[in-house]
Structures are given as C-alpha cells and as structure tokens.
Design a protein that fits this description.
The protein has helices at residues 6-21, 29-49, 60-81, 89-125. The chain has 126 residues and is an all-alpha fold. The protein folds into 2 domains: 1-84, no CATH class; 89-126. 4% of the residues are buried.
Length: 126
C-alpha cells in the first residue's frame, strides 16, 4: 500500500513534462484515468518481469532478453496508448534507443553493486 501512490505520481510527472513541451496541452478525465491505470499496469509488469532473472537453469542472455523484451513491450504499449510518444518510426526508434541504453546502464550498475557486496561478504567470511 505504501507504493500505491507512485502510479499517479509518475503520470503527474509525465503530464507536467508534456505541459511544458506540447502547445495548448490539456487532458480529459478519460485520458487521466487511462494514464493512472496504465502506470499501475506498468508497475505490475515490472514487478512480474523479475521472475525471468530467477529461473536458475536459464542462461543469463535468455533471462536478460526476456526481461528486457517484456519491459520494452509494456512500456512501448503504455507510451503509445497514452499518446506520450507518437506512433511514428523516428519516435519509436528514439524511444527504443533510449530504453535499451537506460536498461543496460541500470543493469551494469546493479551488477557492479552486487559484485562489490559479494566481495565484502567474502572478505568478512575469511
């Protein structure tokens, strides 16, 4: 329940950005509801996608591909359905490049953090 408010907060941040970047920006109640519900669905998919990283008999490449693919599909559908990005080849290409770059930067930082924590734990066990 503590994290339940993040959906509307994320939607609010997106609306705030759109308000400054889109001339005469306005939303209907239906559009606001769609945005809030879709951000909750994104959170649900995001939490569920972590299961791919927990399948021990899968190689790392397969779990990363499934995790990345499921998150990319969910985010892309959300952004297109909410008209946060236009459904045009250049917009989709830019979104894809930004998403993949961000995904791997976050993944790399997490891997480095886990390795550092593992090293500390190994040193304490010695």
């Amino acid at each position: 329940m503590i994290f339940g408010g993040f959906g509307p907060i994320i939607a609010g941040i997106v609306f705030f950005i759109l308000d400054f970047t889109v001339p005469a920006f306005s939303l209907s109640g239906c559009e606001v509801l769609l945005a809030v519900v879709s951000t909750y669905l994104l959170a649900f998919v995001h939490a569920g996608a972590s299961v791919f990283n927990q399948i021990e008999h899968w190689p790392l490449a397969r779990s990363l591909a499934c995790h990345l693919g499921s998150l990319y599909l969910a985010y892309m559908l959300c952004y297109i359905v909410n008209s946060w990005i236009p459904f045009e080849p250049i917009a989709v290409a830019l979104f894809t490049a930004a998403f993949v770059a961000t995904y791997f930067i976050i993944w790399f930082v997490i891997v480095l953090s886990i390795k550092a924590a593992s090293r500390k734990m190994s040193e304490k066990l010695k």
